[in-house]
Design goal:
This protein is of the alpha/beta class and 554 residues long. Helix content is 24%, strand content 23%. Helix 2 crosses helix 11, helix 7 packs across helix 8 and helix 11 packs across helix 12. Bound molecules: adenosine-5'-triphosphate and magnesium ion (MG).
């Protein structure tokens, strides 16, 4: 069953770790998860979290949580806190305290001075436009900046004055001195410090120069004794710079970087910047909108941490394209919920039914278990009544061939109850069916009717006992598999206008005390989760997590 942990699937990173442990290169492993606190995490980050923290668990090593907080304008505390919540919710614990790249700002500065002293870094006064021009192209070598041969003394002086705030934002940078004709553009004297007067969430206004990500990341890894620094494939071309920096300064160790492919999910997007756009433009109700592929959105929708971890295991880790259909994620969630969600009945599009031969006191209610395989979940009485609700979809005046649900003159089994015949459909002035008049066969409680077969079983609720509830039903957020594939078209063009349907219906009153985030299977409708924000005991709100069958396979 899916809630029991499955054995880890082997992958190239595990093979590397196995070899490093076998050869004695490392006696234990240290990984890290290094998010930038510039947005809420998404399902792609969940893959990286499961990888980094999961390896630490499996190999009895450690995994650090380190914020990459080198872009003060875009980062904030709200994002940093949400990321910590997400990691915990997914079931992981980081090693020691939360770490921040900014913890190392002083050390990073000293290492930059070391590079200057070795003639390996210089202050450049070129404007950003000039720098771009000097950088060259993929096919053309770059040119040396006229400031490249400044003396060590002059560079030390200028860099100290950059830090002291003597120069305007953007007027100077510190660059490494590597090779302007390198085939790898990342090695053409990349900038490692820039001047930016921005308030930083941790260091306030202490600094007006900030280190660049590539420079910061490798040094932070080394200072933390990371053994295996795992990142996504777009950093493969940055690895030579990662190694160059560590080779040229006095760090305690030289971690190795390994790259794996990013997760891309069809019919959604995995980019914090684009998810932010959906939020700021009001296309969704917030980062935690249950249609969002954010961890907090998936949580609010009712996805389980176990299901997401199982999904991460199923998709694996490799260097090849990792574009996955939403159906794979949904099926992992469904498999997990199957054995743990109590089953009750709800009606999302109610149609009133009057049982004309109901005899109070004689027509009985039945007890029903909450889960067919788990008697320990308990049971409740499913009350019967003269008036019941059924699902409007379960009735048709002119049913297609093979119809097993209700039609005039036809019979169905009411789940946990009697066989019921529809005698008449009552219509309003416009001709719409607004009520059914039906009769039950009193001899069918818990047994088959004599002399005939009734195939269809439908869910229903006693009108007098049911609890009014709101149901939020979701469809894909986008109408095309890769909404951001075309750079010239705004991905918002492909938003699905029908991604959210709100229905007012009914549910069994036994859920009346359900706490927010309680999950149920509403029979035949799918798995639902009491909304974290809006669900109240007297006013239930349920989000459909996932339907029972794969409704995506068309
Ligand atoms: P985004 O483009 O969405 O902002 P990012 O890579 O800039 O993503 P970070 O906060 O820097 O976001 O990511 C933290 C870690 O998560 C990094 O190691 C990154 O490689 C990993 N990661 C980000 N997106 C994905 C993804 N789609 N699949 C797997 N890992 C990812
Ligand atoms: Mg990033």
């Amino acid at each position: 069953m899916s809630s029991t942990p499955q054995p880890a699937t082997s992958n190239f990173i595990r093979s590397i770790i196995d070899a490093d442990l076998a050869s004695g290169k490392h006696s234990s492993i240290v990984t890290r998860f290094p998010p930038e606190p510039n947005g809420y995490l998404h399902v792609g980050h969940a893959k990286s979290i499961c990888l980094n923290f999961g390896l630490a668990v499996d190999y009895q090593g450690k995994c650090n949580l380190r914020f990459d907080d080198t872009n003060p304008e875009k980062e904030n505390e709200e994002y940093a806190l949400s990321i910590q919540d997400d990691v915990h919710w997914l079931g992981f614990e980081w090693n020691g305290k939360v770490r921040w790249a900014s913890d190392y700002f002083e050390a990073l500065y000293e290492f930059a001075v070391e590079l200057i002293n070795k003639g390996l870094a210089y202050v450049d006064d070129l404007t950003p436009e000039q720098m771009r021009e000097y950088r060259g192209t993929l096919t053309e070598a770059g040119r040396n900046s006229p400031y490249r041969d400044r003396t060590v003394k002059e560079n030390l002086d200028l860099f100290a004055r950059m830090r002291a705030g003597e120069f305007a934002d953007g007027s100077r940078v510190l660059r490494t001195r590597i090779d302007m004709s390198s085939g790898n553009i990342n090695l053409r004297d990349p900038v490692i410090y820039r001047i930016r007067r921005a308030h930083h969430l941790r260091t306030g206004d202490k600094w007006c120069i900030y280190p660049m990500y590539d420079y910061t990341h490798c040094i932070s890894d080394a200072l933390e004794g990371i053994t295996h620094s795992l990142c996504t494939l777009e950093f493969e071309d940055h690895r030579p710079l990662y190694d160059w920096v560590l080779d040229n300064i006095s760090v305690p160790c030289h971690p190795r970087q390994y790259e794996f492919s990013r997760l891309e999910l069809h019919y959604t997007i995995t980019s914090k910047r684009k998810l932010l756009q959906l939020v700021t433009e009001g296309r969704v109700s917030g980062w935690d909108d249950p249609r969002m592929p954010t961890i907090i959105g998936m949580r609010r929708r009712g996805y389980t941490p176990e299901g997401i971890r199982e999904f991460a295991r199923l998709i694996g880790i490799s260097k090849s394209n990792n574009t996955v259909d939403m159906a794979v994620l949904e099926s992992a969630i469904r498999d997990d919920l199957e054995s743990r969600a109590a089953r009750v009945m709800a009606v999302v599009r109610p149609l009133k039914v009057v049982i004309t031969n109901f005899v109070d006191g004689q027509t009985e209610s039945r007890e029903a278990g909450f889960h067919p395989q788990h008697p320990e979940f308990g049971s409740r009485i499913v009350p019967f009544g003269r008036e019941i609700w059924i699902e409007a979809d379960d009735f048709s005046v002119a049913p297609p061939p093979g119809w097993q649900r209700l039609t005039v003159g036809g019979e169905v089994r009411l789940r946990y109850s009697y066989v019921m015949r529809c005698d008449e459909a009552v219509r309003d002035a416009a001709g719409n069916v607004v009520e059914l008049r039906c009769s039950i066969d009193p001899d069918t409680l818990g047994k088959n009717p004599a002399g005939r077969k009734v195939k269809g079983v439908i869910h229903w609720l006693s009108r007098a006992h049911a609890l009014a509830a709101e149901f939020r039903l979701y469809d894909r957020l986008f109408t095309v598999p890769e909404p951001d594939a075309d750079k010239d078209v705004d991905f918002c063009t492909y938003l699905n206008p029908e991604s959210l349907t709100i229905a007012q219906g009914w549910v069994e009153s036994c859920v009346k005390d359900a706490a927010p985030e309680t999950r149920y299977q509403f029979e035949r409708l799918g798995y639902f989760c009491a909304d974290r924000r809006d669900h109240l005991p007297g006013k239930p709100v349920f989000n459909r997590t996932v339907t029972l069958k794969d409704s995506w396979a068309k």
